[in-house]
């Protein structure tokens, strides 16, 4: 478990972090999101020991983090830090050995990561000759090559195409399965929603929300429900509007992989839980119901509401 507790950091009159506290559990992917200038990078640099704090503490497994422990952390800064004129494999092996790995172990780790990240064919290329996306993959490999006890990544998906994002996701999930805490920041909320177990939202140097990603989305779900009914004619569901307590009814083809768009209609509406159950009961009396449930908002909507 990595923990930052009551940390404050100012730059002159600007309070970048104001009594910030959060936890990054082991074996889980924790997303760290916020607008530019919210304090994400400052907090990450403090966790790494790159930046001092005015007050507060950083704990690892319940103990104040030491310089030796921080030296074992894996870190990917937003600004790429690889040597541009050095070969990819050569410098990954070099970084691993700087962390104390034997030449054999450093080489094995490097070759495994190059394969996992799709860089084997570029192993001997100089970093400056790589595309920006491949440079990003190499930077991620550099953070992982020494089997760190903690992984902290600042915008790891920046500049990656969708296939590369999936590749990196797979590598991070595999690493998390080993039990290490992983904290990463990203502005790509759709990616954060898909990959994270836990989420931290920061704004103006303060933590606004923290917890399991699914639980946070549930918390902000509100009172909107939806029904998936057979039949492509949306007019067949207009009776829902007449149920007392139902408001804001909309109909559309459902986004369900197992149903053909023309075979069903998705009816969304606002109502209390009690009224929603009455709507469901009425639907079942009329015929089969393909689906029913609360509409859970995407992370982008949760983020807007939290930081508003």
What name goes with the CATH superfamily of the largest domain? Answer: P-loop containing nucleotide triphosphate hydrolases
Rg on CA atoms, Å: 24 Å
- The overall pLDDT average reads 91
The total of helices stands at 10
- The portion of residues assigned to helices is 25-40%
CATH class of the largest domain: Alpha Beta
Largest sheet: 6 strands, mixed
**Estimated share of beta-strand residues:** 25-35%
Spatial order of the strands forming the largest sheet: 6-7-8-3-9-10
Order of helical and strand elements: EEEHEEHEHHHEHEHEEHEEEHEH
Low-confidence stretches: 256-261
| CATH topological fold name of the largest domain | Rossmann fold
N-C termini distance: 30 Å
Shape: globular
Descriptive keywords:
308 residues, Alpha-Beta Plaits, six-stranded mixed beta sheet, 10 helices, alpha/beta, 14 strands
Describe this structure in words.
There is one protein chain. The protein has 308 residues and is an alpha/beta fold. It folds into 2 domains: 217 residues, 3-Layer(aba) Sandwich (Rossmann fold); 86 residues, 2-Layer Sandwich (Alpha-Beta Plaits). 34% of the residues lie in helices and 27% in strands. It has a 6-stranded mixed sheet with strand order 6-7-8-3-9-10, sandwiched between helices. A 4-stranded antiparallel sheet has the order 2-1-4-5, covered by helices on one side. Strands 12-13-11-14 form a 4-stranded antiparallel sheet, covered by helices on one side. A hairpin with a 2-residue loop joins β9 and β10. α3 crosses α4. The radius of gyration is 24 Å and the shape is globular.
């Amino acid at each position: 478990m990595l923990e930052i507790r009551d940390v404050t950091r100012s730059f002159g009159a600007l309070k970048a972090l104001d009594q910030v506290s959060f936890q990054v559990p082991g074996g889980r992917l924790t997303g760290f999101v916020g607008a530019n200038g919210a304090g994400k990078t400052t907090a990450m640099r403090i966790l790494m020991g790159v930046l001092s704090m005015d007050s507060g503490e950083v704990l690892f497994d319940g103990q104040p983090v030491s310089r030796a422990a921080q030296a074992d952390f894996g870190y990917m800064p937003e600004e790429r830090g690889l040597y541009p004129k050095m070969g990819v494999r050569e410098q990954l092996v070099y970084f691993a050995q700087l962390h104390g790995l034997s030449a054999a172990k450093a080489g094995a780790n490097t070759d495994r990561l190059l394969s996992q990240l799709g860089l084997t064919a570029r192993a001997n290329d100089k970093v400056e000759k790589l595309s920006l996306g491949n440079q990003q993959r190499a930077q991620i490999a550099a953070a992982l090559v020494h089997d760190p006890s903690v992984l902290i990544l600042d915008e790891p998906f920046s500049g990656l195409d969708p296939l590369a994002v999936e590749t990196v996701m797979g590598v991070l999930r595999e690493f998390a399965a080993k039990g290490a805490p992983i904290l990463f920041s990203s502005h790509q909320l759709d990616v954060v929603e898909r990959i994270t177990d836990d989420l931290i939202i920061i704004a103006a140097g303060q933590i606004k929300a923290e917890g399991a990603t699914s639980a946070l989305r549930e918390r902000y779900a509100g009172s909107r429900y939806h029904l998936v009914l057979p039949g492509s004619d949306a007019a067949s569901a207009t009776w829902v509007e007449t149920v007392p307590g139902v408001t804001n009814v909309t109909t559309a083809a459902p986004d369900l992989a197992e149903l053909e768009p023309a075979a069903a209609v998705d009816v969304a509406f606002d109502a209390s839980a009690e009224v929603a159950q009455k709507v469901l009961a009425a639907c079942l009396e009329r015929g089969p119901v393909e689906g029913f449930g609360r509409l859970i908002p995407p992370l982008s909507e949760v983020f807007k509401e939290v930081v508003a």
